[in-house]
Give the backbone structure.
Amino acid sequence: MNARWSRPSLFALTLLVVGVAAFVWLGFWQLRRADDKQRLFEAFSLAESAAPITLTQARRDETPQHYPRVSVSGRYDSGHVYLLDNQTREGRAGVIVWMLFQPDEGGPTILVDRGFLVQPDPYIKPAIPALPSEVATLTGLYAPPPGFGLRLGGDTLPGQATWPKTTIRIDRDEIARDSSRTLDTRVLLLDADPGVGFERHWTPEVMVPDKHRAYALQWFSFALAALVIFVVLHRRRELKDNKK
């Protein structure tokens, strides 16, 4: 018994070439995304120790991967407090406290992430540490707002009569409507401060580079699998009678 090739059809060849090319392109695309995310995490990490600049300076640079550390003076809006629900830190459930801050230097109101609070009882809102003063100078990372994936359910903020209000996503448009404010396109992630009662550890809320690399390996595996299947399907085995 030996094997020989069965001539593939034009359709089969075309399907193979298109499929393998697509899988390989997707694999390299994921690797490029991994490199982009790696640079993003490095830039984010470096920003935490950088000297702060003014909010006005930060607003001039619209580079997506620019995460400047800023110092801004202004006034908190203590009447509008939003709790981002369903958050976890090291296996502990809690909320992230968001407030509005109006910069003295003008421009739109900025959403400020004050940090994470543990919530021992899911049915009782945690006690929020009081503001030292509504007038303050804040230092933190000027970053894009957190993503929230698929939008499940409508805007629940207008239906809540008591403050602080609870939300499952930080949606700038919803909070702008609810507070009747024009909001900055970015948010302020405050520097860590052990004395204020909040936990703060910031990382970009995006897919990590290793996950992109895993997807790249998956796409390259699909390309290899397509080649193997093509070979298997177009090999024919024939029995030869060696008897004389």
The chain has four helices and nine strands. The longest helix spans residues 10-47. Residues 238-244 have pLDDT under 50 and may be disordered. The beta strands are 2-5, 53-54, 69-89, 92-103, 109-118, 135-143, 165-167, 183-190, 235-238.
